Amino acid sequence: MNEAIRPGPETPPQASSRSPELSVVVPTFNERDNVTVLYRRLEASLVGIAWEVVFVDDNSPDGTWDVVRALAQQDSRVRCIRRIGRRGLSGACIEGILASSASYAAVIDADLQHDETQLPKMLSLLASGQADLVVGSRYIEGYKSEGFNKQRAGASALATEVARKMLRVEIADPMSGFFMVRRDRFEELAPKLSVHGFKILLDLVATAHGDLRAVEIPYTFGERQHGESKLDSMVALDFIGLVLAKLTNDIVSLRFILFAMVGGIGLVVHLTTLFIALELIKVPFAEAQAAGAIVAMTSNFILNNFLTYRDQRLKGFAILSGLIMFYVVCSVGLLANVGVAFSVYDQEPIWWLAGMAGAMMGVVWNYAMSGLFVWRKK
Q1: What phi and psi, each to the nearest 5 degrees, are found at residue 23?
Q2: pLDDT band at 150 (very low <50, low <70, confident <90, very high)
Q3: Distances (CA, A) of 374 to 56, 188, 299, 304, 364
Q4: What is the pLDDT of residues 328-359, one digit of tens each?
Q5: 184-205, pLDDT tens digit by residue?
Q6: What are the backbone dihedrals phi and psi of residue 220, each rounded to the nearest 5 degrees, phi first?
Q7: Over 60: is that where the pLDDT of 15 sits?
Q8: DSSP string, 235-303
Q9: H or E segment at 338?
Q10: Residue 308: CA atoms inside 13 Å, Cβ hemisphere, count?
């Protein structure tokens, strides 16, 4: 399989005495059948431009990183960052851009749906000083689509409208995954960007608060050839979490907001289980409350494992040990919840204020301890 997709022996080693002017950052996951094709397309489109391509691979099971390394051995303009224990398109883009050495950095998908022939035009707009950011847009005249299904297009349009109105983002397509930016401007904003989630451009533009001069150009959106989409069923919650994080001026992180959202779902699960146990099964309150707590903690653990800590997802036996530790963390968090609530109530006997203070303490405790003991970074 490798021989069919690696560069053939006729490809001469490439080296350039010129420092790269453009770094093309390509986040990958299970894209081994696409990376060589994309490399060939970049080579054809960027003639006369000093460029490099940085593939940031999330340890793809299909060995995408191995194919990229074979390319890098024959062309010094190709680099590979293989990430272990980390997942997520935004984080991959941030790492790739910060690892680049050019004055301008482009982000393009490896699925061959973005139009690499537009890169020289995007570079020209930046190099001439007309813009700090150039976006390949789906919502301006001249855009064509060959591979954007109606369901995905509708969801993208809705998310775009929400982002533009709630975050006051001015560009037409803040959800685009195809853009080019001045690296010095990106580095200014990078410390405030979230490494979680999928909408790096939205995060970048919202964080800049209108301080990035942006130009949008149309392009042709092609059909996916191989591999799999990096978006999954949880991306909607991911998007909501990012919007909420930006509305709070990043006072709280995207991961914390997702954790709290999962906690809200857990409260509904707890009350539903409590009702069923009390009213339908007719068990005593103490047993019903315990059942509600266990079911809620279990559902919270599952959702957090698949959403909040998606990039550190526990698998195999680690799921069981992680669940047990999550029970312990949440049990201590419950004590913190009650302790703070009683303390607030003694000072100011307003039940809802005391309850909210206790709940917030419980969420903060559970979030901090879960990161330390349940979903530890390897």
Answers
A1: -110, 125
A2: low
A3: 27, 33, 15, 11, 15
A4: 998 888 787 777 777 877 787 776 677 677 77
A5: 999 999 998 888 777 889 889 9
A6: -100, 120
A7: no
A8: HHHHHHHHHHHHHTTTSS-HHHHHHHHHHHHHHHHHHHHHHIIIIIS---HHHHHHHHHHHHHHHHHHH
A9: helix 317-347
A10: 25
- Tokens representing 267 are 């409260």
State how far the alpha carbon of 327 is from the alpha carbons of 86, 146, 341, in Å. 24, 48, 21
* pLDDT(146) > 80: no
Rounded distance, CA 92 to CA 25, Å? 9
Q: What does the alpha-carbon distance between residue 219 and residue 113 come to, in Å, rounded to a whole number?
A: 10
Rg (CA), the chain: 24
- DSSP, collapsed to helix, strand or coil, labels residue 340 as helix
This prediction's pTM: 0.70
**338 C-beta neighbours (distance < 10 Å), count:** 13
Q: Is the pLDDT of residue 111 over 70?
A: yes
For tokens 């591999």, the residue is 227
DSSP one-letter string for 19-76: PPSEEEEEEESS-TTTHHHHHHHHHHHTTTS-EEEEEEE---TT-HHHHHHHHHHHBT
Q: Tell me the two tokens of residue 36.
A: 């060589």
Amino acid at 123: L
pLDDT in tens, 288-341: 888 888 888 999 999 999 888 877 889 898 999 999 999 999 888 878 777 777
| Strand bridging mode 78-82 / 144-145 | unpaired
